[in-house]
């Protein structure tokens, strides 16, 4: 529930910004044709939350995984000044690119890993490559 309120608090200002947003300068070779997707991608790109793929594409029709989603979702929150623990799940290397956003989400109570009956919570896996 907390995550829902966080997203609502961030979506309304972003939607207001998007009402007058210029979508003609998307840097991706496969920019989507529908306006609402163009606006969303433009805003997230300008806020440096998403960068697209190394080959210059965005691939808006391709599903994202849990790690990518947490990177985007946590990018919508204000930056943190405190050190974030990056070893929060057994299946996440502390040096991997998504460790900080996933661990920040865990510290905020947004994610908790995949519960397994009889397994202690600190051993639950996040499974970052699973599709959202």
Descriptive labels:
mainly alpha, 132 residues
Uncertain segments are: none
Quaternary organisation of the protein chains? single chain
The SS-based structural class is mainly alpha
Task: Write the H/E string, N to C.
Answer: HHHH
Number of strands: 0
Give the proportion of residues in helices.
Answer: 25-40%
Number of discrete helical segments: 4
Q: State the major sheet.
A: none
What does the overall shape look like? elongated
Amount of beta strand: under 5%
Radius of gyration, whole Å: 16 Å
Q: Taking all residues together, what is the mean pLDDT?
A: 84
Distance between the termini: 18 Å
What is the compact description of this entry?
With 132 residues, this protein is mainly alpha-helical. The protein contains four helices and no strands.
General description of the model:
This protein is mainly α and 132 residues long. The protein is built from four helices and no strands. It has helices at 2-18, 35-46, 66-75, 99-107. The model has no long low-confidence stretch (mean pLDDT 84).
Topology (SSEs and partners):
Blueprint: H1 2-18, H2 35-46, H3 66-75, H4 99-107
